[in-house]
Amino acid sequence: MKLIKKLIWTTPVILLGLLLMSADHIDAPSVASTSADITDYYAFQNPDEDALVFVVNTQGLIAPGETGNATFDEDVLIEINIDEDADNVQDLVIQAVVRDQELYVFGPFAPTSTSSSSTINDNASDQVKVEVSEYGMQAETAENAGLKAFAGPRDDPFFFDLGAYQAILSGNATGFSDPGTDTFAGTNVMSIVVEVPKSMLGNADSINTWVSSKVRG
Known about the structure:
- The chain is mainly beta.
- The model is unreliable at 1-21 (pLDDT under 50).
- It has helices at 64-67, 162-169; strands spanning 6-10, 13-15, 21-23, 38-46, 51-62, 76-83, 92-99, 102-109, 118-119, 127-131, 141-144, 147-155, 188-197, 208-216.
- It is globular and about 55 Å long.
- The protein is built from two helices and 14 strands.
- Strand 11 (141-144) and strand 12 (147-155) form a beta hairpin.
- The protein has one domain (6-157, 189-216).
């Protein structure tokens, strides 16, 4: 059975390079506080294996008391895009979508289109499925053909001192203090983690990568 049909509308968080990260809490009004809102994107090498790890966090600023009821929106598709030749066009795509409290990951595969709309490639040769982990319970992970995946709530890892930032903008401070105050302390995100063997990502010495969320139309 097809998991999803046509998907339109996208919110990209661009990330150039391999060992970088990006944060975008409190997004535009049409996206903020929705399940399509991407807060962070991380891409890094697994130091113990010849693999890359991609982490996509959404739905930022979830209070601990609300996290147990937080869920992934089944109308939202997450796409991890990989550019191997530095032309800022994806050469490979990894798709992740939740159905009935299970995360399905497809890819990486070469997309047939690079437009803002997508169709899930549930016929991709490489795929893995994992149950969404419950808040406060042991993490559920799964592996298939070298692909590993996790989905569930996690503590927001991003550190930012919003009060100091606003003071700098208003001219009441000249810089941040050390260690400062973490505005996001105690809040959670909904996280998707995919680990991919380098052998599935081509032969490029370096890659550009970014993530997008797309809502079913």
